[in-house]
Amino acid sequence: MNIRPYDTSIRSLFQSSFLKIPRFQRPYSWDKGNLEEFWSDITNADREGYFIGSMVMYGARGSQDLFVVDGQQRLTTITIMLSAIRDELNERGFEAQARGIQNVIERQDINAEQRFVLLTETSYPYFQEYVQKLGKPEIRLTPTEEERGIQSAYKFARDQLASLILGIERENPEDPEAVKSILKARLERTRDILLGIELIVVQLDNESDAYVVFETLNTRGKDLEPKDLVKNLVAKLMPPSRGIDVASLKWSSVLDSLARSATTIGPSTYLHHFWLSRHEYTPERTLFDAIKKKVADAAYASEFLDQLVTDVETYRRIFEPDNFAWAKEELRLLKSLLALALFRIRQPTPFVLALLRAYLAKEISLKQAGDALAAIERFHFLHTAIAGLSSSGGVSMMYAAAARELTSEGDAQKRARHLQEFKAKLTGRTPDRDVFNAGINDLRYSQAETRNRPLIRYILERVDLSGKNGVAVDYDAMTIEHIAPQNPVGASPVEGYASLGNLLLVSEDLNTKLKNKEFGEKKEILLKSGVVLDPILADATDWGKEQIASRTSHLANLVYA
Questions:
Q1: 506: β partners
Q2: How many CB atoms lie within 10 A of CB 206?
């Protein structure tokens, strides 16, 4: 490996080379904190000599083109800030200075062809048209997730310049010529600091060595996630053929699908869950090492990418189930997935992914998929949502092992046996009734305590369903009624009024009729409205602390069963 380090400046680098950010690099990802720190550094720096560290690049000796391995975030940010200064100068009437900056951003190569100095593949053509180009964009583009980051960085730079201008105008309220002169000098100073930034370029000869350096940087503490390393790996194993970059296209389709999600799903998290749904358990910190051992050639890399593409929509169903179409007979799957989303748990995800994948591939029946999901729902309702018990690493390994068994099993009878064994394992981990009851007794819902409202609704819906014998109910049109009122007229609320035993699901209209009525009157209205009362309510002649506690215990027994 031939490594050539040398010191240079941004001005010299931009004037001597054309910089390409290769396809295996991660997208632009600087956030406001990164931008604020960088802007503060350069605006407080001397005119010359601000050191930005090292950047790793590769390119043939004598070639104008250098490919950036490490440094793309800083180079992109510098280009964005230069472009913002250029546009400010241009809009203020300093056309010559604006063209001067543009000659740094865009210039002729050895063949007299006009080129942008920094070329990015992942944000093309947005970065070129909306940032690097001098003048208004000629095409309308909807920015991708990465391009929204570029858009935000450009806006950040323009906002900082606007603040600078406002400060100058306030200092010179009656002297527009002085404002113009000071502004020009400040903008030129910021430009010169950016161009005078010093750095060390570590240059390699070829792409193969660059991939090695890319991975080595990660092992030495660089902030690279599994998604960045895996993208690098598949790009190395599947180079473009006949001008078509299949790896990049497939990888982009996965990221685009995740970006369209109504919930926040990180690509690295998806990679981890996807891997656990098919392979041996590994923690996320060693995920890339595990993938690298398996994905060792172009054929396996292609299969791996195809599986990622196929699974991503199924994966999204787990976290945003109500954004996908379900057949009427599949509604029990939808309800269980919505419950798991309510409980905010991620541990079952590898197995749920394997389960839905097997169901959609017709490898298991709807009943098998529904029963398994219902078992997971019940376990985490009892164990996590109510009892508040933390799950050990053994639970994560159990889910991953069950997912792997389901995915790898080719025999239908053995798959059915695996599912039965899995449900038995969940039952064996169910918390005992006393622990569960203690969690139920701690639940509160009132105007002052709303945190548990979704969970309370979930419990009350389950209770109500148990007495409906399959009759369809629109629970979205129902509201939670306090049997003993929260704000009784001329009195203090009953002790325990926010407990589960004092809560009931009713329609909006019925809720209005019941408001602040005495218990006897409420009970009569409920019965006349056809509401099926549980035994505690039906037998009660008065309603207070004891009745609420008794009904809480009764409801706990109903939902524990």
A1: 479
A2: 13
